[in-house]
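ok trying again, last paste got cut off:
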Amino acid sequence: MPVCQKRLERGDLYTEAMTMFLLLIGAAFAAGAINSVAGGGSFLTFPSLVVAGVPAVIANASNTVALVPGSLASAISYRADIVRLSEARVKSWFLVCVAGGAIGAALLLHTSDRTFREIAPWLLLFATLLFAFGGRISVAFRGRLHSNQALMLSMLFPIAIYGGYFGGGIGIMILAAFRLYGFTDIHGMNGIKAILAGSLNAVAALIFIVAHQVAWRPTLVMMVAAIAGGYVGPVIARRMRPAVIRGIVIGVGALMTIYFFHIAPK
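nice, full thing came through this time. structure:
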């Protein structure tokens, strides 16, 4: 093979690797920021990992691991809002979310890559629709669960199982539950959401790591970017119109849903 041709091939591989690298960084930073505001960051990171060549189940597990530090960074950034929205029952919510996240992660580990590729489009569709219309539902029923701890826990448990298994749209699900419970302070809600989502994702991430289901190279790259996005997100949230952010998330979710229905195994 001529030397010049080898150099061209190496150049093409380098360009492709850099493109994937920048894609993962950009997706993770945006996901960290979006998750700190409302949720839906997995619409960016999970498909990016699949496009980068990571198998679907490992991509989903790696996505969870990559975004955990971003959630914790968001909680730190929202710490003043969390203190303002003091809620004595958060401890029980935390425990339920940890248990549900562990169950969801265990279910994912018993799902084949082909089966998950068939399920993923429907999960993305469900999460996108919930993100698009969940606000109207939660507003309509706002305060109906106020002081009803049993019903609140019964909502959070399946949400946490879903979060441990897939996680797309988990933020909006938790926010919808808070609306039903009667909360109205969006920044305080986002702070507690970051704690709950971060905790269920953390236990799921630990299970995925122990099971050796993490593609570490892209995960570490995305983790650093997600931390930056998760900390900066609350600052951006206070300056951007929520409708703009929601529109971006819904648009990405719709495109990724169509894409995964197209590539899902028949």
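cool. Residues 3-263 form one domain. The chain has one domain: 3-263.
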